[in-house]
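Retry 2 of 3 after timeout on previous attempt. Resubmitting structure tokens to design endpoint.
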């Protein structure tokens, strides 16, 4: 039996090669493979890579591939993964056509459907990243298209510039939109730590992954958008830990599937430090 409870299993996707970590691919692969026998191995989901480096990844490493182009690159990535035997567990595509977001989602879907008709992507989750803005009618129409295709949503919660960090009210609106459509989602960037905080070096205000998980639970339980935003804004660890101990986190994970992080050590150490994950005694 895994020492990692279901609430934390597969929570952290290993995005070591992306900013601000920017690890060389060979180092990221070696670190990923080196964790396989560690007690916390089940905390970690797939290795997140771009389509351009997929040929360099060993086929035994489960990967989620971020597309660097539009829907037109889906076929090539899908075919390569099948031909080489890659464990392609996720495909992540961003909406780029801001003038026709729903149409962009439909083009991604058409490309995925064509690949599946050819026998590719059969067990691959598809994540569609919508622009990191307050939901507009066009944004919501794109979310509708994601839900209709039974894809998952992807939300950007940080980056290397201040404007890439969304306000709590915006993230609350994203969560509301996802749950309203019964659509699962992952987050990417800015969630290295469990609890909301201001980074001392950059001054950026980061969400915490525990905040997002608990906010998802509150939203699913019928909380108002303001109540969800309050949880996202909470920077008191003791409050959040107490709330976590009383919440059905397994149920929240049904919707908030994972987040990409260039660090595995930070979320691991914080879960252990907060008493939410127990390391085996030696």
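Retry 2 succeeded. Sequence:
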């Amino acid at each position: 039996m895994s020492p990692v409870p279901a609430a934390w299993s597969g929570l952290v996707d290993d995005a070591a090669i992306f900013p601000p970590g920017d690890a060389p691919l060979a180092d990221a692969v070696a670190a990923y493979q080196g964790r396989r026998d560690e007690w916390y191995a089940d905390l970690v989901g797939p290795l997140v890579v771009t389509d351009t480096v997929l040929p360099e990844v060993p086929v035994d490493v489960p990967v989620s591939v971020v597309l660097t182009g539009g829907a037109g690159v889906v076929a090539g990535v899908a075919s390569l993964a099948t031909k080489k035997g890659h464990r392609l567990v996720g495909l992540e595509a961003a909406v780029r056509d801001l003038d026709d977001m729903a149409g962009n989602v439909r083009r991604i879907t058409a490309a995925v459907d064509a690949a599946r008709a050819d026998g590719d992507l059969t067990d691959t989750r598809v994540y569609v990243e919508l622009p990191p803005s307050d939901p507009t009618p066009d944004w919501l129409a794109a979310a509708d298209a994601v839900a209709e295709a039974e894809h998952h949503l992807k939300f950007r919660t940080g980056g290397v510039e201040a404007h890439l960090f969304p306000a709590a009210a915006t993230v609350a609106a994203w969560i509301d939109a996802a749950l309203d459509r019964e659509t699962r989602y992952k987050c990417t960037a800015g969630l290295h730590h469990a609890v909301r905080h201001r980074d001392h070096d950059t001054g950026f205000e980061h969400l915490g992954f525990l905040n997002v998980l608990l906010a998802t639970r509150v939203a699913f339980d019928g909380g108002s958008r303001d109540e969800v935003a309050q949880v996202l804004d909470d920077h008191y660890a003791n409050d959040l830990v107490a709330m976590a101990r009383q919440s059905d986190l397994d149920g929240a994970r049904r919707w908030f599937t994972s987040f990409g992080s260039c660090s595995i050590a930070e979320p691991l150490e914080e879960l252990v430090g907060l008493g939410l994950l127990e390391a085996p005694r030696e």
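Attempt log closed. The beta strands are 12-14, 44-50, 63-66, 88-94, 125-129, 152-156, 185-188, 197-198, 205-206, 256-261.
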